[in-house]
Amino acid sequence: MALAGLCRVRSSGRAAPPLRRCLQDGLRARTGEEAAARPPRVVGSRLCLQSWRIGAVAARLEARRVAAAWLCEAAPAAAVRQAAVAEAAEEFKVVYRFPGIKYCRALSRLKLLQTATTLAVVPPVCYLYLQGQASQTVLLYTTGVAFFAGVMLYGMSYFFRRIIGLIYLSESGRTVKVAHLTFWGKRNDIYCPIETVMTSDEAGDVKGELLLQFKRYDSKDTLYFTTKYGQVVDRQKFREIFGELR
């Protein structure tokens, strides 16, 4: 019986190695399949690096495009500022002067004050009329005066804003500066190249007219000046701008 048990042990010991080999082979095959299904780490890292590089290049190109667009938008504004600084730094000589412009400015501000005062009176009169303390005649009279003052203010400001007080010409002879009034009675300067200013013949003016026209090719606005009540300080430069009056 001991011999039979020893034979069984030997027989089972002989059968164990083939079973162990089968388990090892199955484990190796499974490990190989999982390794084949899993992407290589090296390839994955390379792909991530390439995608990161492509994203960085795209971001850099987008930043350059935005910077170029900003420079294109800022260039005209910078050019305008540089032109304004150059015009302000350049010296101008007086060519024409209208002494009566100070009276026009005073009258324009006085008319503005009068209109504001008249319009301020209308609400209290309306309130008194609603309370029965003012007649309808007073209400209509106050409203009519305020309306007439507004119309007169518009007409006078329309005229005063187009009266030229001073005309300058730069030392280089390329830029003309014109000073006129605004709606509030303040001074406003206009800079324009001499090539854009129409001569008196092109504007349709003749010698002896009370008001002469100041027109430009690049603008529809028309300003006025007078040689009868104004003073031509430099006739040579005046002829350079407007030519000879016929």
Give the arrangement of secondary structure elements.
Layout: H1 2-37, H2 41-89, E1 92-97, H3 101-130, H4 136-160, E2 164-170, E3 175-181, E4 187-193, H5 200-203, E5 212-216, E6 219-225, E7 231-232, H6 235-242
Antiparallel strand pairs: 1-2, 1-7, 2-3, 3-4, 5-6
Q: Which class do the helix and strand fractions yield? A: alpha+beta
How much helicity do the residues have? 55-70%
Largest sheet: 5 strands, antiparallel
Mean pLDDT: 76
Low-confidence stretches: 1-17, 33-37, 39-44, 74-85
User: Approximately how much beta-strand content do the residues carry?
Assistant: 15-25%
What separation lies between the terminal Cα atoms? 153 Å
Radius of gyration, taken over Cα atoms and rounded to an integer in Å:
46 Å
Shape: extended
H/E element sequence:
HHEHHEEEHEEEH
Instruction: Please give the number of β-strands.
Output: 7
Q: Which oligomeric form is depicted?
A: single chain
Strand arrangement within the widest β-sheet reads 4-3-2-1-7
| Helical segment count | 6
Structure description:
It is a single chain. The protein is α+β, with helices and mostly antiparallel strands. The N terminus is likely disordered. Helix 3 packs antiparallel against helix 4. The chain has six helices and seven strands, in the order H-H-E-H-H-E-E-E-H-E-E-E-H. Strand 2 and strand 3 form a beta hairpin. The longest helix has 49 residues. Helix content is 62%, strand content 17%. It is extended, with a radius of gyration of 46 Å. Strands 4-3-2-1-7 form a five-stranded antiparallel beta sheet, sandwiched between helices.
